[in-house]
# Entry
Amino acid sequence: MIKEGLLLVISGPSGTGKGTVCKELLKIEKDIKLSISATTREPRNGERNGVNYHFLEKDVFERQIEQGEFLEYAKVYDNYYGTPKKYVIDEIKEGNNVLLEIDIQGALQVKEKYPKGIFIFILPPSMNELKKRIVGRGTESEEAIQKRFGSALDEINYVKEYDYFVINDEVKEAVKKIRALIRAENCKVSENIEEIISKFKEEISC
Amino acid sequence: MIKEGLLLVISGPSGTGKGTVCKELLKIEKDIKLSISATTREPRNGERNGVNYHFLEKDVFERQIEQGEFLEYAKVYDNYYGTPKKYVIDEIKEGNNVLLEIDIQGALQVKEKYPKGIFIFILPPSMNELKKRIVGRGTESEEAIQKRFGSALDEINYVKEYDYFVINDEVKEAVKKIRALIRAENCKVSENIEEIISKFKEEISC
# Structure
């Protein structure tokens, strides 16, 4: 029997740098599989199907919703976004760890469907720092910045639904922590008890 | 408010090398405090009071048992051995991590009194390897070896009472895993939720 892989769900408020953290993590832990989202929005310049997103027609997406083929999905304005379940479950069953980088609402849906996942909440070092990062993007109006900041503040309350929190002060340090979490999860007795007992008992009976 | 330290309880069957693992861990993680056991047995050559053990008179030890001053204790033949509670609790309250290297029966007693502890079970890489290690000591009769080996086998069942298991194949690797567990425990939301929420909310209300 192959030992199942872990589902790592990394999320947090916008502006905490979870994207960068995930990218660095994947560079170091090359065996982790990244789950690619599906969407019905048009590909932007340079985006490739199956790499950035699985680009689906709206009717296909809706049929897949009905057939329960998403671990989570959401409609944002007129477009759907979601996480196809099959890829994630297949990889886990093969013994591979899978990474989902996802917003908080999505993570909560995944938690309902797959509570065994490891839910990791990325936090900014401080709210001031978060504000600086949001402003620093330089792409948004003052009003949009305030709105984004306000919702980040609300979103921090959802940390209580997660298993672990990681403060993203230094990306390197944050990645180190996530790697430690993976290592620790693999040492949990509760997830491995049958394997441990059989390993030592079988050996003896031979 | 100071964040409490962790109580790390490391145990496992004899011959798994938990002593070596603990020694190496303490060399690297210099901030971890080692709990020193108390005993009523005579000091052996070179053993120092307060370093190897706290050497106590029998009547003192028994009075301390009555007063609930031990996290765990046992009588082995005519001598008592135990873990003084005060030192451990004081250090934890100060924010320090404390290490207890202890046998399985002792660990189970500690778990009753301090369930928040991190209970780590050291396993041999295999039962064959364990036998080799027990034989390798070269100090025991065939009968004693068989007895020790048999009880090690029974003891492995207790792994289910622990939070984590660590296979001691390479000491360096085992230490790495324990360090990862400590890091992971410090990222657990459940142990830090008030701190996280207040950190971000207070900052905002200022």
User: Anything to note?
Assistant: Chain B touches chain A through 35 residues (CB under 8 Å). DSSP finds eight helices and nine strands in chain B. The longest helix of chain B spans residues 189-205. The helical segments of chain B are 18-28, 58-66, 85-93, 104-113, 127-136, 142-155, 171-185, 189-205.
